[in-house]
Design brief:
Length: about 230
């Protein structure tokens, strides 16, 4: 069943487009890797899907009862964010804020879900620890827990392994794959590494001068056409 339908999108800022003529669909359970050269509009697309940036042209529609507040988002971290002096529990619970509205407190059900998500991601017992004292990999697990508390069905991930060492990178990719295959979460992930996309994703969205959307195996057949424009790096 379709969860996201993007049709003939033009996206940009201040009247200047960075991405034109983009159409693709995402179905429940898909794992879509978004690749392309730097400046091609990958993060801009994420912002548009989240409703933070209106399209200059075209439409973004949701199916299966999906709405903006049912999408979890893991953005790229800044240095300031890595030094954020909050507890792990505060950060994970903040994933419920968009649905909490004007309620002053989190519900027992929300707290139970937060604990369940933290256990699922291997950070149970971290509740009282300060976020800035964690390793890079632990911080990403905390932020992924927060995104899962916000998400009902879909996760958007913007280069989630940036700055992590190879071992932690492999662990995080495995965790994301498990969320997709075992938990049925739809993944839309910007990746700087096409080789990882080839191993993990069910579909590839390549944006830039050339646009491709389709199954991983079909992208493999045409990938030579994209390497020439720097398709190996996002």
């Amino acid at each position: 069943m379709l969860q996201l339908i993007c049709h003939n999108l033009t996206l940009g800022y201040d009247g200047q487009s960075v991405l034109q003529g983009l159409s693709f669909t995402v179905s429940a359970g898909d794992y879509v890797c978004v690749v392309g050269e730097n400046g091609s509009g990958k993060t801009t697309l994420m912002k548009a899907i989240l409703g933070l940036l209106p399209p200059m042209k075209g439409t973004i529609a949701f199916g299966e009862g999906l709405s903006h507040n049912q999408i979890g988002y893991l953005p790229q971290q800044t240095l300031a964010q890595k030094d954020f002096p909050a507890s792990v529990w505060e950060i994970v619970l903040s994933g419920f804020q968009s649905r909490r509205g004007f309620r002053p407190f989190y519900t027992a059900e929300e707290k139970e879900k937060a604990r369940s998500v933290m256990e699922r991601l291997g950070i149970q017992g971290f509740e009282k620890r300060c976020y800035r004292d964690l390793s890079g990999g632990q911080q990403q697990r905390v932020l992924l827990s927060r995104a899962l508390c916000a998400a009902e069905k879909v996760l958007l991930l913007d280069e989630p392994v940036t700055g992590l060492d190879p071992v932690v990178t492999a662990e995080l990719y495995e965790l994301i794959s498990d969320l997709n295959h075992k938990d049925g979460v739809t993944i839309i992930m910007i990746s700087h590494d096409v080789s990882v996309a080839m191993q993990q994703a069910s579909h590839i969205l390549h944006i830039g001068e050339k646009i491709f959307f389709g199954r991983r195996e079909d992208y493999l057949k045409t990938n030579g056409a994209f390497k020439a424009e720097g398709g190996e790096r996002a």
